[in-house]
Specification:
The complex is a heterodimer of chains A (304) and B (287).
Chain A (H helix, E strand, L loop, with lengths): L1 H22 L10 E2 L2 E3 L4 H14 L3 E2 L2 E2 L2 H9 L6 E4 L5 H9 L4 E16 L7 E2 L1 H8 L8 H4 L9 E5 L4 H11 L9 E4 L2 H9 L4 E6 H6 L4 E6 L6 H5 L7 E9 L6 H20 L7 H12 L1
Parallel strand pairs in A: 1-3, 2-5, 7-11, 8-9, 8-10
Antiparallel strand pairs in A: 5-12, 6-10, 6-11, 6-12
Helix pairs in contact in A: 2-11, 11-12
Chain B lengths: L1 H41 L5 H5 L12 H32 L5 H13 L4 H15 L6 H25 L3 H9 L4 H30 L2 H6 L2 E3 L14 H9 L4 H36 L1
The chains are: A alpha/beta (304), B mainly alpha (287).
Chain lengths: 304, 287
């Protein structure tokens, strides 16, 4: 009995020590230290991750954990002062802003990139090239009468459409329903939904009669399997989203920064670095940069 | 007449056996397909630098070091919290508590019900109690305590079953020799039931290792660019890192997600293997 207990203790001790050894190789220099706490939208996450990665490379002793609890989940933590920066794929809601006010959290808002929502069909679908905003509303509204392509335009085939859309928890879903159907969350009930846009890609690519929408980056990575549908005769692209002609399905992405946290040198330097590099880094991870002027204006504002 | 009946029963028996067999084969095939897919995609992306690098926006530079360290930290602490507490509770309920009292019964029903509560609920509890009330922040400690709560009911129930399986003759033999209750428990009951307790604990800990939802809830990060050095550091774990990669648009990220799954599998299997070796050692001793 005793030897076993001893062995178990040794093993437990080993298990505890191993991670310590793993982490023992640190380095120090003349750089920023401390922690910049970030949480929020999973859409904005790749951009913030890229910025954090680059900034950590310059400041190896600074910790920048980036959470992914969603825009709403992020604001819940941000508005009670648990995080320094909140990633958001929509503006803060009145209720959330009220909580921040009650807790004495002042914040600044910065746009970091655009995200386009693309309407897509399968490669085998040869008839849908363009849809107007009105047609989209007719198709997706909660009381929609559309069930075949023919119902949209008489010259299109009399075949049933299969609908695909992001899951109801995603910011893309909120934004699309708000812009197209006029109310966030209002949509026809008979669509296949998934929180994972890659699942939507698979579903639409494999079905001639599928119609769906999701983030533009997912179309870009799967151009060989999908056909892009233009909206009001404008095809979404880097240029049309950037100059605002692809409308209404492009939206800005934000970071909310607590003003109190900005007094800390590490947060201040990080936000500055973010605004200086957001354009390039956003592009690298598949989003559309804002016009240079907006970044420059925001930096001016920040430096004041 | 009688032989006809017997024949019919034999056919029924064969049919039932066949049905069970096909169920087993079906589930094994699905598992093998999954494993095949993961290994086919992920194996070529496994390398030492994948294990030792931090996550990155470039798939070919991204590694899993911080998530692996976070998982090892979290699971080690979870075991330290959950196993002693769980086994202790089980011993109390089986050996000391008055089985007929309403208090014991209420506790018993509660524990069984808690085993079926969705993990996200434990995440909400962890956020309220550990992160905010006890102010442990979004740390490894909060994560480990949350996971410990999550798997406690499973460990308790499994340990109770193991303790119940100790033959009363053994216990009575021990008492007959004038041995105290405490000595009977440490010298007879626990060694005999240890294999069962270990099996239950393995299953529970494996579950904790694969959890992402409650940890995201308490605020575990999706990106950690540093090695966690103390239980109060922010952290991420393998399942969160893997989920994060699979939801990226770029196909290369899905490939390294598969490599991440292999790392998680290896970690899980080596931990299980260790527990099984320990268990077999005990089993042999008791036989």
């Amino acid at each position: 009995m005793k030897t076993i207990t001893k062995k178990i203790t040794t093993i437990l001790a080993l298990a505890l020590v191993t991670p310590l050894i793993l982490t023992a190789c640190g380095q120090s220099g003349n750089s920023l230290t401390g922690e910049v706490k970030i949480d929020g939208s999973s859409t904005v996450f790749p951009i913030t991750e890229a910025v954090a990665e680059e900034f950590t490379a310059q400041n190896p002793d600074l910790k920048i954990p980036v959470g992914v609890s969603g825009t709403g989940g992020g604001f819940k933590k941000f508005t009670i002062g648990e995080t320094d920066i909140s990633d958001a794929s929509r503006p803060i809601k009145d209720e959330e802003a009220q909580v921040a006010k009650d807790n004495g959290i002042d914040y600044s808002i910065y746009q970091v990139a655009y995200d386009g929502i693309s309407i897509v069909v399968s490669k085998d679908n040869t008839w849908v090239k363009n849809l107007t905003t009105d047609e989209l509303k007719m198709i997706w509204s909660p009381d929609s009468k559309i069930s075949t392509w023919k119902d949209i335009r008489p010259e299109w085939p009399n075949e049933k459409i299969k609908f695909y859309a992001p899951g109801t928890d995603s910011g893309t879903f909120d934004y699309f329903t708000e812009e197209i159907n006029g109310e966030s969350g209002a949509i026809r009930a008979d669509f296949t939904g998934s929180e994972d846009d890659n699942v939507l890609v698979q579903g639409i690519a494999g079905d001639k009669n599928a119609l769906g929408f999701f983030g533009f980056a997912y179309y870009e990575e799967n151009q060989d399997k999908l056909n892009l549908v233009s909206v009001n005769d404008v095809t979404p692209s880097l240029d049309t989203i950037k100059d605002g002609t692809y409308t209404p399905l492009s939206r800005p992405l934000y970071i909310y920064v607590s003003n109190k946290s900005l007094d800390r040198p590490e947060v201040n330097a990080f936000v500055k670095f973010y605004l200086e590099n957001a354009g390039m880094l956003a592009k690298e991870v598949g989003y559309i940069p804002l016009p240079d002027k907006i970044y420059a204006d925001q930096l001016d504002l920040f430096n004041k | 007449m009688e032989s006809k009946l017997i024949k019919r029963r034999k056919i029924k028996n064969a049919l039932f056996q066949g049905a069970l067999m096909s169920i087993i084969i079906f589930s094994i095939i699905i598992l093998l397909l999954l494993l095949y897919q993961v290994f086919k995609v992920g194996f070529s992306h496994l390398s030492l630098s994948f294990i030792t690098s931090m996550p990155s926006r470039f798939a070919n530079q991204a590694g899993i070091a911080s998530a692996l360290a976070g998982s090892i930290w979290t699971i080690t602490l979870t075991i330290l919290f959950a196993v002693p507490l769980g086994v202790g509770t089980a011993i109390y309920l089986e050996e000391y508590a008055n089985q007929k009292s309403w208090f014991t019964k209420i506790i018993q029903v509660n524990i069984s019900n808690l085993a079926g509560v969705p993990s996200i609920v434990y995440g909400m509890l962890g956020l309220a109690v550990f992160v905010r009330f006890l102010n442990f922040q979004r740390s490894i400690l909060s994560g480990a305590l949350t996971l410990a709560l999550l798997i406690l009911p499973v460990i308790i129930v499994a340990s109770q079953e193991a303790l119940k399986s100790v033959p009363s003759t053994l216990k009575e033999g021990s008492y007959a020799l004038g041995v105290s209750k405490w000595q009977t428990i440490t010298g007879v009951v626990i060694p005999f039931s240890l294999p069962g307790i270990l099996t239950g604990s393995i299953l529970a800990v494996s579950r904790a290792m694969g959890e992402a939802a409650p940890l995201i809830m308490i605020g575990a990060a999706g990106y950690i660019g540093f090695m966690p050095r103390s239980p109060l550091d922010s952290f991420t774990v393998l399942p969160i890192q893997i989920f994060n990669w699979t939801s990226r648009p770029q196909a290369e990220f899905q490939n390294i997600a598969a490599a991440g799954i292999i790392v998680l599998l290896v970690l899980l299997l080596s931990m299980n293997a260790f527990a099984i070796i320990l268990r077999n050692k005990y089993q042999n001793r008791m036989d």
